[in-house]
Write a structure and sequence with these properties.
Shape of chain B: globular
Shape of chain A: globular
Structural class of chain B: alpha/beta
CATH topology of the largest domain in chain B: Rossmann fold
Radius of gyration of chain B: 22 Å
CATH topology of chain A: Fumarate Reductase Cytochrome B subunit
Largest sheet of chain B: 4 strands, parallel
CATH architecture of chain A: Up-down Bundle
Number of strands of chain A: 0
CATH class of chain A: Mainly Alpha
Helix content of chain A: over 70%
Number of helices of chain B: 22
CATH architecture of the largest domain in chain B: 3-Layer(aba) Sandwich
Number of helices of chain A: 11
Distance between the termini of chain B: 63 Å
Number of strands of chain B: 8
Distance between the termini of chain A: 42 Å
Structural class of chain A: mainly alpha
CATH class of the largest domain in chain B: Alpha Beta
Strand content of chain B: 5-15%
Oligomer: heterodimer
Order of helices and strands of chain A: HHHHHHHHHHH
Strand order of the largest sheet of chain B: 2-1-3-4
Number of domains of chain B: 3
């Protein structure tokens, strides 16, 4: 849904391209730092450790520890639910967005044919967006709420932490608000339809997603999206 | 304040931290699980694992991050005093590693930080004194090295070479000879042919835990060689600290797998019981709480397996007639340390005492008569806490309990 609101323009296009380039540069610098200046040293040591117990052990860690947060499950079921909601919500939503972009491109080149059909089909595909959107909104809302209202957690939460959780919440919220105004939201239907507001929020959703998330991943705590799976795999689940 | 302008920081960091440890410094999600689990934080001291990683990681970014690359290194970095104060207070129990959602190997990370910290000039007088003692006297107690073997009874047959080796360790040799004698009595009465090193020295545990082992490599290599020349295939350790050091740290010094296997004494005891080479006397009803030593427990799960490190001592205790084994609420991987590890007993003795007193209080609540463990260091710290608390709980090693209850 979100990608259909993106109307482009030279400045927004450049902004989004720059954010992706900054992301790539940041990842490269991170890997270089881990390898004491040599990315190759890091990769070689990571591959050696990750596959030390064989391919099956690697796969087991990938599925149970990375995809299903086994270590968090053993500590707290509530926090596990929050993590699952945020991770899978974000992951699948991202995958759907990617598919939508592909559909949009196909529709652009072949509006009357197969590409157009795919594009129109995907444009009507609201249910998974909505379900996952609510998941991630709830997950980030709970995380934000804990940091704001639970005394012990608030005491140990820095401004950076608050910004990061807050930015996820804003990304999810702008996306969902746009969906509500679009008139297609599952369960709400045309009750709130307002296309101007929908397009406005969609555009904001895309900007904040790139500028508050993609671009800052390597430079902020968001980097744990990359570093935690890498660590779990290299430490073979950490047990 | 750390000086970043001269090349020392980055050089020292690359010397002490592996690429995966560099990754781990970026893998902390600040979930705060480690803070909640840390016995030192629970005892009222600030800055757990999370802050330590943030402190060191921040300095590293300052020295090697984008701004440093574009504009050159800044003259100085953030003050790391708090990080090293907190490292000094760390018992390296590794509980933070168990609860870490990212699976960070924290214990090894603290050891690397301590090593780097020493090179950067963060040193504690008591810790340095012990490091010197080990370098000069080959034991952390500054005892005369020639007196190391005086605890060994003359009537115990010790072979010059045998497939089984016995490594007593400094605490047994200089502070707890009764524990060593109990172990030797069991070996003798079970007709086990065993040998000991002629040149036994400190295993180096304290040096590894405090990041100062590099100068001690020659001594470790000579002990490995000595065991090999005596035809030893299995080395028994009555000390959890020595066991961990030999199992995890010695191969790093040796550069390849050791030519013998390392075995907790409790595993050997369980084998003797199963083979009926040990027979117990009249049952005496006792309620025994088992304390999992960190060095002989969760630190060794990977190389030795859960059965050896957690179940063997419990199986031995359960096999003693009359013994009712009771468990701490937090046990096995989740066990709470005695407070003495990681150089804390020497560097911050008050902290070691606070944690041990908490443990003794738990034993009272469990209504146990005996607190058993497989680590002389835990035995010492918990025993001292028991005495100062006026407790009538007896703190014993599993070896002593078996020796006492044998026919």
């Amino acid at each position: 849904m979100a990608v259909h609101a993106y109307t482009g323009g030279i400045i927004p296009d450049l902004l989004l391209i720059a954010s992706v380039l900054i992301f790539i540069a940041g990842i490269w610098l991170l890997i270089a730092r881990w390898g004491h200046g040599s990315p190759g040293r890091f990769f070689s040591s990571w591959v050696t450790e990750s596959f030390r117990d064989g391919g099956m052990a690697f796969l087991r860690v990938l599925v149970f520890d990375v995809f299903f947060f086994r270590r968090i499950w053993t500590r707290s079921k509530r926090r596990w639910a929050v993590h699952m909601a945020m991770f899978w919500g974000f992951f699948i939503l991202g995958a759907f967005t990617l598919v939508s972009i592909i559909g949009l491109v196909l529709g652009y080149f072949d509006p009357a044919g197969f590409g157009g059909a795919i594009s129109r089909y995907l444009a009507d595909f609201h249910l998974p967006y909505d379900v996952l959107g609510y998941f991630i909104l709830a997950g980030s809302g709970i995380a934000l709420g804990r940091r704001l209202f639970v005394k012990e957690v608030r005491k140990r939460t820095g401004l950076t932490d608050l910004f990061l959780v807050g930015s996820i919440f804003i990304i999810a919220l702008t996306g969902m608000v746009a969906e509500w105004f679009s008139g297609y939201a599952t369960g709400i239907g045309p009750l709130m339809t307002n296309w101007n507001l929908a397009l406005e929020f969609m555009a904001w959703h895309i900007y904040v997603a790139f500028l508050l998330f993609v671009m800052v991943i390597p430079w902020t705590k968001f980097r744990h999206i990359i570093t935690v799976p890498l660590t779990l795999l290299a430490r073979r689940g950490g047990d | 304040m750390i000086r970043l302008k001269d090349p020392t920081f980055t050089e020292i960091q690359s010397r002490w931290f592996s690429p995966l440890q560099m990754l781990e410094l970026d893998a902390c999600t600040r979930c705060q699980e480690c803070v909640a689990a840390c016995p030192v934080v629970r005892a009222g001291f600030p800055d757990g694992a999370m802050e330590r990683i943030a402190g060191w990681g921040g300095t590293g970014v300052h020295a090697t991050g984008l701004i440093a690359r574009l504009l050159g290194k800044p003259a100085s970095g953030p003050d790391l005093t708090a990080v090293f104060d907190s490292l000094l207070r760390c018992t390296t129990c590794g509980k933070c590693s168990v609860v870490c959602e990212s699976g960070i190997s924290t214990t090894e990370l603290w050891e690397s930080m301590r090593g780097a910290g020493r090179e950067l000039g963060f040193r504690n007088a008591a810790v340095e004194k012990t490091i010197d003692a080990i370098a000069q006297q080959k034991n952390p107690y500054s005892a005369v090295p020639e007196t190391r073997a005086t605890w060994i009874p003359e009537n115990v047959p010790i072979a010059s070479s045998a497939p089984v080796g016995f490594f007593a360790g400094c605490t047994v040799a200089f502070r707890q000879p009764e524990l060593g004698r109990a172990a030797l009595r069991i070996l003798a009465r079970s007709n086990t042919r065993f040998c000991m090193l002629g040149n036994e020295s400190c295993c180096g545990s304290f040096l590894f835990r405090t990041g100062s082992w590099r100068e001690y490599s020659a001594t470790i290599l000579s002990m490995i060689q000595d065991f090999e020349e005596r035809g030893v295939k299995t080395v028994l350790f009555p000390c959890a600290g020595c066991l961990k050091t030999a199992t995890i740290d010695w191969p790093r010094v040796y550069g390849r797998p050791l030519p013998f296997r390392t075995m907790p004494f409790s595993v050997f005891l369980r084998d003797l019981i199963r083979e009926k080479k040990i027979r117990f006397g009249t049952p005496v009803p006792r309620r025994v709480a088992y304390h999992d030593p960190c060095h002989g427990g969760r630190h060794l799960v990977h190389p030795l397996g859960k059965d050896w490190v957690f179940e063997a001592p419990r199986d031995v205790l359960s096999a003693i007639p009359g013994v009712e084994l009771v468990e701490f609420p937090d046990n096995r991987e989740s066990g709470i340390c005695c407070g003495a590890g990681g150089g804390v007993k020497i560097g911050v003795p008050d902290l070691a005492s606070i944690i041990a007193h908490e443990k003794i209080e738990s034993v009272h609540q469990m209504k146990a008569d005996i607190l058993a463990s497989t680590c002389p260091f835990c035995r010492r710290n918990l025993g001292e806490a028991g005495v100062t608390a006026g407790s009538n709980v007896e703190v014993l090693d599993v070896i002593e309990l078996v020796d006492r209850m044998m026919e």
